[in-house]
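Table S2 (continued). Query chain:
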Amino acid sequence: MRLLAVWLINAAALLALPWLLPSIHVAGFATALGVAVVLGLINTLIRPLLLLLTLPVTLLTLGLFIFVINGMMFLLAAWLLDGFVVDGFIAGVIGSTLYSVISWLLTRLLLSSPRS
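Corresponding output:
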């Protein structure tokens, strides 16, 4: 049940991006659900390999190169799916950062268990 809730939260975060960043376009909720699945698969399968291959550059830039990798993963998802458009690399980097922050915040607010 938690996986379904996180999936819906990530889709909602994707729907919020066009209001915050006009260079990102999401066609609708069904597209956002598909993009959330594709981003999850990309981040599970491809991102760890890229992080390993670019480890020297990441260390040299004190971890800032991870923003570049995240932006590339965002652009890859836009390239794979119709209805999800990212207008450029900088928009991809900023969009992936905003998406991460929004989805983390919503997950924290909606799914965190109350502390006793």
